[in-house]
Design a protein that fits this description.
The protein is an alpha+beta fold and about 210 residues long. The chain has helices at about 70-75, 80-90, 140-145, 165-185, 195-200; strands at about 10, 15-20, 30, 35-40, 45-50, 55-65, 110-115, 120-125, 130-135, 155-165.
Length: about 210
């Protein structure tokens, strides 16, 4: 697993900027048949799964990508609004998949599963093929930067590239809306909205 430095720059007002064009693809690739989101308590996770070919009601593998609630709202949701609408318009040109409506992957058992944390992602699609690249900007690096201890810790670590259809990605984004609304209902109501929420929540114990 590599570490990326060059895509990150610090703006004149001390904002952290990421140049998507300079982000290399993650080395690990996951082929997903199914995608969904779960929200329990204060935990939010995106799930991706591969079905067993000869036992379609079971999963061969399941990948969990965990988000903090605020990163789900501030990054995954807010940054994908235009992409989501364009994806919906394109997918509407295809006939519906009625069989998918009968599947509830959250209730399926998996032979193997794996979990990772993430807080940054990039989405793309070409025709009916879609992918999501997931990265992690470490909390320690952000905290030290916020305390004036330099930007050397601001390093994006590639986590995984998930390949899936646009129809499954659209389903994931559509279902994320209700979760985002639930999260917004309990996020601290700080003056200055999301930017202040992020600043207030930065601390490090040494």
């Amino acid at each position: 697993m590599g570490v990326v430095v060059d895509p990150i720059t610090v703006g004149p007002n001390q904002t952290i900027n990421v140049d998507l064009a300079k982000l290399p693809a993650p080395d690990r690739i996951y082929d997903a048949d199914l995608a969904w989101i779960e929200h329990q308590g204060r935990a939010v996770s995106l799930f991706f799964a591969k079905r067993l070919r000869n036992s379609p009601q079971r999963l061969r593998t399941r990948l969990e990508l965990r988000y903090s609630p605020e990163h789900l709202v501030v990054h995954f949701w807010q940054n994908s609004r235009g992409f989501h609408e364009r994806l919906r318009s394109y997918a509407a040109k295809w006939p519906p998949d009625d069989a998918r409506e009968e599947i509830d992957p959250a209730k399926m058992d998996a032979e193997h599963e794996h979990s990772e944390w993430t807080n940054f992602e990039a989405m793309a699609h070409v025709g009916s093929e879609a992918c999501l690249d997931f990265y992690l900007l470490p909390a320690v690096g952000v905290a030290r930067f916020a305390r004036g201890q330099g930007s050397s810790g601001l390093r994006l670590t590639p986590i995984v590239r998930v390949q899936l259809t646009i129809f499954e990605l659209l389903r994931l984004l559509d279902s994320a809306e209700s979760v985002v609304n639930e999260v917004k209902a309990y996020l601290p109501k700080l003056e200055g909205a999301t930017e202040e929420l992020q600043k207030e929540g930065i601390e490090e114990s040494l």
